[in-house]
Amino acid sequence: MIRGILGKKIGMTRVIGESGVFDTVTVIEAGPCVAVQIKNKEKDGYSAVQLGFGQAKKLNAAAKGHLKGLGSFRYLREVEMDSSGTPEVGQVFDVSIFEVGSRVDIVGVTKGKGFAGVVKRHHFAGGPKTHGQSDRWRAPGSIGAGTSPGRVWKGQKMAGHMGHDALTQRNLKVILTDPQKQLLLVRGAVPGAKNDVVLIKQSKWEKS
Questions:
Q1: What is the CATH number assigned to the segment(s) 4-111+167-202?
Q2: I need a labelling partner for 106 at 20 to 30 A (CA). Which of 4, 135, 140, 157 fits?
Q3: How far is it, in rounded angstroms, from Cα 78 to Cα 118?
């Protein structure tokens, strides 16, 4: 069957564990997701399931044809399958595919910070605050030599767009599942802002 589903980040809170210790958790509305397309090795070169999640306000003609009779989904994502069986188009998956105590990898998009300088973006120390240098406190300083190589190296840390990057948080422990409310609680933080869509997958790096 499938190894993950789509969800929406609700926010963070804390719960009391069996030992009486507080656990900081992220609350995710996981599913329900509908299988809208099955990919196989014979036709597509790989095995995967395309899932639909969230209600779309409006679809174009191509999307309506692709989702005919299945629903109106805002998000479509492909997830891996394991060898335990092949799902069918129209099959519904929810938070019940995860077990309490298991580990998951969650893929999200980090918060966008806009244009940022090198002090904020790369934690540069900045220039000296004395000796006549009054306007270069947060400047990067020299970015390359003047002779050889006579250019700026590729990958040089400079000011630019910060955040809004795809990030995978690995090996998060499932603390609680609520199939009735479609809620999944995992220990720790998850990338993204509230109401952002995340992909929750069975972890390949599970540790005790």
A1: 2.40.30.10
A2: 157
A3: 36
Written as six digits, the tokens of 154 are 């590729």
Residue 190 CA to residue 146 CA, distance in Å, equals 44
Q: What is the pLDDT of residue 207?
A: 54
Question: Model-level pTM greater than 0.70?
Answer: yes
Distance, in Å, from the CA atom of 38 to the CA atom of 164, rounded to the nearest integer, reads 30
CA-derived radius of gyration, the chain: 23
pLDDT digits (tens, 9 = 90+) for 128-142: 888 888 788 899 988
Give the Å distances, CA to CA, from 200 to 126, 130, 184, 207: 39, 51, 10, 17
Task: Find the length of the chain.
Answer: 208
d(CA 61, CA 14): 44
**Vertex 172 angle, CA 170 and 200, to 5°:** 75
One-letter amino acid identity for 110? T
CB contact set of 66 (below 8 Å; sequence gap of 6+): 36, 37
Q: Where in the chain is the domain with CATH 2.40.30.10?
A: 4-111+167-202
Give dist(CA 140, CA 121) in Å, integer: 11
Q: For 180, how many CA atoms within 13 A lie in the half-sphere containing its CB?
A: 0
